[in-house]
Structure to design on (616 residues):
């Protein structure tokens, strides 16, 4: 299934030479991402270095040629994503990695990739923005940009990693989603997750099978159950003469202005993701059904949320945690399911409430949705979250 | 997260039959019995702080404990603040950034001034007394060792300061086992420097902290 999977002992050379203990290793999040991509079959990387994502590129430069792939450092991020789209049109699994400023440059080509239905992995290791911002501080400020950064109504698959193991397994899941749905997938991490090192057992990798079903990496392959929604890809170099355009096009690949064809084209593009929400939405619930307050969290905030839940448990506060690995498509079902049973949903994020607004739209008819924002380049502490919970519950009791 | 994380309590009991023995004021392994410990290395860019954090993290991993290592540096390419934090725990680590340090190792005056407040009151402050000439006021245990001078004396290479310092950190606090530290150091050092680094490590491990205690205010 995977071309040239990486042998386990190759892992260890990524750390500190070849003499590292084989049973487990301490590895950086960005490097785990690169390894996940290689193991998932990515064989093309084009990028431009930017803190705090550069180690992904560095690891790919190191590894990709040996794995039979192509690595190119481009002149900027626009060229990087365009090179990836070109590679994807030939049937290669392609990826790029960047941070906020580079992700901004990629937006137009991202829309093109969606339009011409090329599988692609874009990793955005978020730093504090806007603009150059704070290159070495974590943020979750690009969440809505990942969803709506490029213009027009378009589908989006956006995943969020919260630890080093996620950087490996969600990269793998992202590549598979991209391949299956023939669309770019965005993996969001932040400076902390990308640059931290953490103990990580390679034995665990076997358990990281988040998706099931057949994945065929043959260029142009479409899974039968998506045959109606995913358009037949035009593979460059396959012998035919494909026409690829960002204009609305029909099955021939040539532009069309026909209102009926335009409508069905965009709906199919949109629905191929929307109709498969259940298989795309990855999440985890802790203390399920036992909380009056649910902390909804993703990325590094999910780690704080877990710590806060354990603290809450010691202090007798009824808290559950909904950890979202998939931000878009919106995990409507699980959010509404939880919303029906809790009194408050608390959403800590390293931005000014971007995802809280989304959750509010889905959940406010059943529960009170409260956002907590932080933009100073540090994480919430578990105590900060717990104090807010105590305040919410206290307020409720006094009513 | 860890209610028992307070004052240094002493050495790890030697055997099961001694578990009831009250812990005594320690000579070695001041933090050896902690199930959760937070260590911060700080100084200026280029002193090998990141590698110190990484080696300690790998050593803790060799001890089969959970570990998270994070780093922080300014946007500038060199100089400026640099720090490396290591959290070591017997159980999975949720919150990944350092809350308050049990041990702070400062290799520059600026870092000592800036980061001593991140140290918990019952924690341990260690600094390079050759670099930190005006030690910050700290009520807890304070140990000032001229790490850079000792490393230069021992190996002729000031670049081995970080390994010597790690030896001292582990010799005094026992946050990781000596065996794992040695293994991690040998994995990390460049080829051809094994011998000098082994000497620096041994010198660090052999330090008697009582000799370097600074009267706290």
């Amino acid at each position: 299934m995977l071309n040239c999977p990486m042998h386990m002992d190759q892992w260890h050379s990524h750390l500190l030479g070849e003499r590292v203990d084989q049973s487990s290793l301490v590895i950086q999040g960005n490097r785990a991402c690169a390894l996940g991509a290689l193991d998932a079959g990515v064989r093309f990387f084009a990028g431009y270095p930017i803190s705090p994502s550069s180690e992904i590129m560095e690891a790919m430069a190191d590894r990709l040629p040996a794995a039979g792939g192509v690595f190119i450092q481009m002149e900027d991020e626009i060229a990087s994503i365009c090179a990836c789209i070109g590679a994807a049109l030939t049937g290669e699994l392609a990826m790029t990695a960047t941070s906020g400023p580079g992700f901004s440059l990629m937006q137009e080509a991202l829309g093109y990739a969606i339009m011409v239905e090329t599988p692609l992995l874009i990793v955005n290791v978020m730093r504090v923005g806007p603009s150059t911002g704070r290159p070495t501080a974590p943020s979750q400020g690009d969440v809505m940009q990942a969803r709506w950064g490029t213009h027009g109504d378009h589908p989006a698959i956006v995943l969020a990693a919260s630890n080093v193991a996620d950087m490996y397994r969600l990269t793998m899941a992202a590549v598979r989603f991209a391949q299956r749905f023939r669309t770019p997938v965005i993996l969001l991490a932040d400076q902390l997750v990308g640059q931290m090192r953490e103990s990580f057992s390679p034995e665990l990798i076997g358990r990281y099978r988040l998706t099931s079903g057949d994945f065929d990496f043959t260029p142009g392959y479409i899974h039968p159950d998506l045959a109606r929604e995913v358009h037949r890809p035009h593979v460059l170099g396959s012998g035919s003469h494909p026409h690829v355009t960002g204009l609305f096009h029909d099955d021939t690949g040539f532009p069309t202005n026909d209102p009926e064809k335009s409508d069905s084209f965009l709906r199919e593009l949109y629905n191929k993701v929307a109709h498969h929400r259940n298989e795309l939405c990855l999440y985890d619930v802790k203390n399920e059904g036992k909380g009056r307050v649910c902390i909804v969290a993703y990325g590094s905030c999910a780690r704080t949320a877990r710590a806060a839940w354990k603290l809450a448990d010691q202090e007798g506060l009824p808290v559950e945690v909904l950890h979202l690995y998939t931000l878009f498509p919106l995990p409507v079902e699980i959010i509404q399911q939880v919303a029906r049973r809790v009194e408050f949903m608390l959403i800590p994020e390293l931005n000014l409430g971007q995802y809280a607004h989304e959750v509010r739209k889905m959940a406010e008819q059943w529960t009170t949705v409260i956002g907590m924002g932080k933009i100073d380049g540090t994480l919430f502490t578990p105590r900060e979250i717990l104090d807010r919970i105590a305040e919410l519950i206290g307020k409720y009791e006094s009513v | 997260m860890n209610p028992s994380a307070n004052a240094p309590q002493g050495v790890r009991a030697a055997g099961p039959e001694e578990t009831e023995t009250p812990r005594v004021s320690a000579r070695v392994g001041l933090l050896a019995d902690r199930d959760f410990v937070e260590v911060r290395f700080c100084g200026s860019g280029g002193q090998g702080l990141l590698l110190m954090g990484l080696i300690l993290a790998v050593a803790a991993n060799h001890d089969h404990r959970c570990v998270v290592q994070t780093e922080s540096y300014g946007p500038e390419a060199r100089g400026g603040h640099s720090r490396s934090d290591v959290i070591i725990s017997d159980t999975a680590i949720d919150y990944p950034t350092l809350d308050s340090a049990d041990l702070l190792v400062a290799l520059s005056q600026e870092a000592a001034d800036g980061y001593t407040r991140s140290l918990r009151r019952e924690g341990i402050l260690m600094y390079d007394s050759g670099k930190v000439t005006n030690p910050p006021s700290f009520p807890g245990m304070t140990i000032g060792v001229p790490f850079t001078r000792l490393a230069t004396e021992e190996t002729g290479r000031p670049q081995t300061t970080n390994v010597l310092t790690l030896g001292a950190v582990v010799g005094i606090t026992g946050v990781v086992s000596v065996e794992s530290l040695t293994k991690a150091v040998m994995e990390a050092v460049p080829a051809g420097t094994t011998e000098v680094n082994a000497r620096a490590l041994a010198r660090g491990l052999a330090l008697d902290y009582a000799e370097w205690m600074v009267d706290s205010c």
Observations:
- Chain A has 14 helices and 15 strands.
